[in-house]
Amino acid sequence: MTGGNRGIGLAIARELAAAGDAVAVTYRSGEPPEGLFGVRCDVTSAEDVDAAFAKVEAEQGKVEVLVANAGITKDTLLAVMSEESFTSVLDTNLTGAFRVAKRGVKGMMRARTGRIVLVSSVVGLLGSPGQANYAASKAGLVGFARSLARELGSRNITVNVVAPGFVDTDMTAVLTEDQQKGITAAIPLGRIARPEEVAKAVRFVASEDAAYITGAVIPVDGGLGMGH
């Protein structure tokens, strides 16, 4: 899985490992998580992605489950958003998912089985001021996933989206108390999610129990985005 050394990604990696899967995670900076096979990879580079897959395949064999989680934010209002701020977010969050899916699907097609899970966001469906770049990238994952679901269904490969809401991670920890209160007031369940709650949804759609689910967008957002 991509972006697996902290936050939601690390929780997903640990959840899959607890289920008995051999898990490999990519990370762009820092150190790999303890107890997991880590490969340094920048998903904005096709060469990096190819090299990372080669290392994982040599260590663990063919990739049966691919989770595309790597993502960045560069929040600012549209009127002052630079072109680089827009395109770099798209390049990591959306085109990065394209790069890893394209590389990963080759082995799945030969094996005639596989699971692809793309981690989107409630923001991609609901919208958020100052996040036009991020929301566009996360919304794009839905169309990407559903197109792949139609392309790959005959090969017994499922492609699904998990769309978290606000989650207790380093990214939300920087919000002020007033900001957090405003967010939780809009969430029907009245709290933000734990990373493990997102991880369990990913684990489900990656499992045999979800063999007849494809092209789905599964919200883990406490009801924040319902109806979208």
TrEMBL record:
It holds the Pfam family adh_short_C2. InterPro entries: KR_dom, NAD(P)-bd_dom_sf, Sc_DH/Rdtase_CS, SDR_fam. It comes from the Bacteria. Residues 2-170 form the Ketoreductase domain. Signal peptide: none annotated. SUPFAM superfamilies: NAD(P)-binding Rossmann-fold domains (SSF51735). PANTHER family: 3-OXOACYL-[ACYL-CARRIER-PROTEIN] REDUCTASE FABG, SHORT-CHAIN DEHYDROGENASES/REDUCTASES FAMILY MEMBER. Belongs to the short-chain dehydrogenases/reductases (SDR) family. This is 3-oxoacyl-[acyl-carrier-protein] reductase. It comes from Actinomadura napierensis. The lineage of its organism: Bacteria, Bacillati, Actinomycetota, Actinomycetes, Streptosporangiales.
